[in-house]
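Revision sheet: structure tokens.
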Amino acid sequence: MAQETLDSESAPAAPAQEVSVVVEKPQVTEKEPQPSAPAPLPEPEVPEKPAVVAVEEEAVEVEKLKVEEKEETKITQSVSFKEETNIAGELPEPQKKALDELKQLIQEALNNHEFTAKPKAEEKPVAEPEPEPKKEEEENKEEKKEEKEEETPAAEISEEPKVETDAPAAVEVKEEENTPPPPPPADAPAAEVVVVETEVAEKAKAVDDDGAKTVEAIEESVVAVAAPPAEKEKEEPSAEVAPQSEETKEAQVPPPPPEKVSIWGIPLLAEEKSDVILLKFLRARDFKVKDAFTMIKNTVSWRKEFGIETLLDEDLGNELEKVVFMQGFDKEGHPVCYNVYGEFQNKELYQNTFADEEKRSKFLRWRIQFLEKSIRKLDFNPTGINTMVQVNDLKNSPGPGKKELRQATNQALNLLQDNYPEFVAKQVFINVPWWYLAFNRMISPFLTQRTKSKFVFASPAKSAETLFKYIAPEQVPVQYGGLSREGKQEFSVADAVTEVTIKPAAKHSVEFPITENCNLVWELRVVGWEVNYGAEFVPTAEDGYTVIVSKTRKVSSADETVISDSFKTGEPGKVVLTIDNQTSKKKKLLYRSKTKPYSD
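Predicted:
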């Protein structure tokens, strides 16, 4: 009936089918005793209202889902990587909302001590549920005894010896039959109980062991039934007082204070630096609050299991100081970490690092210790630098054929991805061999746009030029084409370097003007060299003589990486450096100079 009327009233066929399903639901659930089940079925107009409401609710839910999907796409879509702001007030509204929700979850977890509490499976076992089956068994025994008591009168008619057990049952029946319909006075129940108890007690003396059990069971049932109301009222409040006293005791005991949890020396909820930490986890999980919260809990748990705080003070040696080291900053102020895989060409170092599981574990602990110490030097203020640049040198890398190195590297990468989110501003791979580029092309479709935007690859010929795009030459180590050297030097990273590109088959001159009583110091290098270099002093006076400071000579890449020179003079003039590029490739020239006062 309902389906036919709906089909006639509603023009489209699809909605009619959806409504018919709504009408049939109460008919299926009629088996369950629910107050809402007996609805007037013969009237077709009654189910139409909930059907319309259901359709409207579905439409509202669909619109909500669309809005949520739009918000998620706004957050997750990123055309190219760009370091986002860590100032809470400058975040987009969806990200602000996600940050606030994450803070609420963390606050609740801190209040409930979820970061340090044991798993729930270990807290559940309590001694209370065990006696419940015993109670059920006792109740079953009492029911069986009562059934036996009810069956005893029929047996007593045919068997005369069992007279003792019949007496109490007869007494009970007589008492029930003799009780007048109006309620007896207050003293009557007490007298009846005394009579029953005395009669049962006298007859229990002449009964054997089996009969004693039945008499005791009857006595318990009689006393329980005939107990005076005054005693019950006294017992009930005593039972109620216990839970009230427990509640009051619990109310008097103050709840434990929220636990304190820190990561990298910064509390999870305390200051602006905490927001920077939380935003790292949110960005690592595309601002999915529950996923970010789970990642934080897993990271806190892993740090305790791995023993991070004690790891910082461990002495793990310095054999790997040339494999991974920090040196300089990029043009935006990020510290730069260099990973030199070619060092493992040394067979002795390779065996000492990856020969067995114990040595690989030590390498992993050393790598995590190095990273932890580097992170502690970052600035976690909202406007500070809290990420770093990774430079990975693949020159002479052992390659994928080394199983032990591959296992250790994969294990380290997994730990870094799971527990150190958003600490890399840029991943620069230099001296990349052909096989690595082919491998990267294979895995590139499986990487997110955000991850791919951080990767930069450079072949051996383009490595120095690529580094100079992100790191100033005075900050780049000399082995990678820069001018940064260890030890005491005439120049430091504070002295800026000038970059010049020399075209193929061309000469380039650099002039340093000097005054009287001046000592001029300079240093320069040509990336890849294979050029001719010379230097001379040209005085300002017309009658002066040109002085050759450095005779023109050809410099190859194997001769020297950096040329450092100086010239003292007591007259004004200029020092001219000449670089002659006779090759068919352009060259990158780097130089800097400074003057010092000079007196005889």
